[in-house]
Write a structure and sequence with these properties.
10 helices; eight-stranded mixed sheet
Length: 345
């Protein structure tokens, strides 16, 4: 991509470049769920991926694991291209690329014990003797906070949060390099959400696993993610470290998302609703896709699509308000409206 920084390949476990995914529909326009999506997931890093429902977050997660084929672009896992899953077993190398789904109940077999399901995952990922297999399963369960007795029980014996812990353990026995966590907490209560989120952050920190954390809950993402990518209608509009993004969101959409998140400051401040409706992804707006909902849009926005440009160290933004010449000249970044940062007033 033009203007995009490139990280050392040794840092990057999963790399997506200019990924396009189209869903064909009979007698209707195709839906381009991803329209040139790029991001990197580093080892030992939690990479948050946020945006409204329908922006393409889950499609990216499924494409990254080969569950969805891509129309163009590339996705590489540890330097090797990810190919769509077929009838044949996946090469063993790619079994270190794991996915945790939103619905833990649906992703576990209700007729098999937890121990058998973890053993299946271990058997398919590597050749492990039976004694070592049992030990690895117990270590994985202990890592996620479940007792040895869980191996003899069935998924229906556990709560929603515990079932999601089982899914995390099932990923761990494959000795993963990257875990794609697709809305892993949205079906859980507040307490379980915090526990699972903290668990994933600990795995990234302690085991060096790269985690793509897909969520619409900005409060949780702020707490656990090291970097955050903001998506809108299949494209990246901003990417930055979590601290940078919350201290100074540069794209009007990023600002609107943060303003719409409930504030836990005890002041009783109500969140600000994001103006307008999400456009039909099959017929996206011309120019900047966010311009129909943007209070800062001007003449250029509906005509020309802004490029995703480097706007600082490991930071990118796609907005005409962030003039490329200001970054080249070494000026300080300015939030839309001319201020030094913060939310749109």
């Amino acid at each position: 991509m033009s203007g995009q920084f490139e990280l050392d390949s040794k840092e990057v476990a999963l790399r997506a470049r200019d990924v396009v995914v189209e869903y064909k529909r009979k007698h209707m326009p195709s839906v381009r769920a991803l329209a040139g999506m790029s991001l990197d997931v580093l080892r030992g890093q939690v990479h948050g991926l946020v945006g409204e429902s329908g922006c393409g977050k889950s499609t990216l997660g499924r494409a990254a694991t080969g569950l969805v084929g891509i129309t163009s672009g590339s996705i590489d896992f540890e330097g090797k291209p990810v190919k769509p899953l077929g009838l044949r077993p996946r090469p063993r190398h790619f079994r270190r690329l794991q996915m945790i789904f939103q619905d833990a109940h649906a992703s576990l077999n209700p007729r098999r014990t937890v121990g058998d399901q973890l053993a299946d995952a271990l058997r398919r990922s590597q050749d492990t003797p039976s004694p070592d297999r049992d030990r690895r399963i117990l270590v994985a369960l202990e890592r996620v906070g479940l007792p040895e007795a869980a191996t003899k029980r069935y998924p229906s014996d556990f709560s929603g949060g515990q079932r999601q812990r089982i899914c995390v353990a099932r990923s761990l026995v494959a000795d993963p390099t990257v875990i794609i966590a697709d809305e892993p907490i949205s079906a859980l209560d507040a307490s379980a959400q915090a526990q699972i989120s903290n668990l994933l952050a600990e795995l990234a920190r302690d085991l060096g696993i790269g985690i793509l954390f897909i969520s619409h809950d900005l409060a949780i993402v702020r707490q656990v993610a090291d970097v955050v990518t903001v998506m809108y209608l299949g494209k990246v509009v901003e990417s930055a470290s979590t601290d940078q993004l919350w201290a100074q969101p540069l794209h009007p959409y990023s600002q609107a998302l943060i303003a719409a998140a409930p504030a836990h400051d005890g002041l009783g401040t109500l969140p600000e609703a994001l103006a307008g409706d999400i456009p039909d992804p099959a017929i996206p707006p011309t120019g900047c896709r966010f311009h129909p909902r943007c209070k800062h849009a001007f003449e250029r926005c509906p005509v020309e699509e802004p490029a995703l440009l480097d706007v600082g160290e490991r930071r990118r933004c796609a907005c005409w308000l962030q003039a490329e010449k200001s970054w080249a000249g070494g000026e300080s970044p300015q939030a839309p409206g001319g201020g030094s940062g913060g939310l749109v007033s």
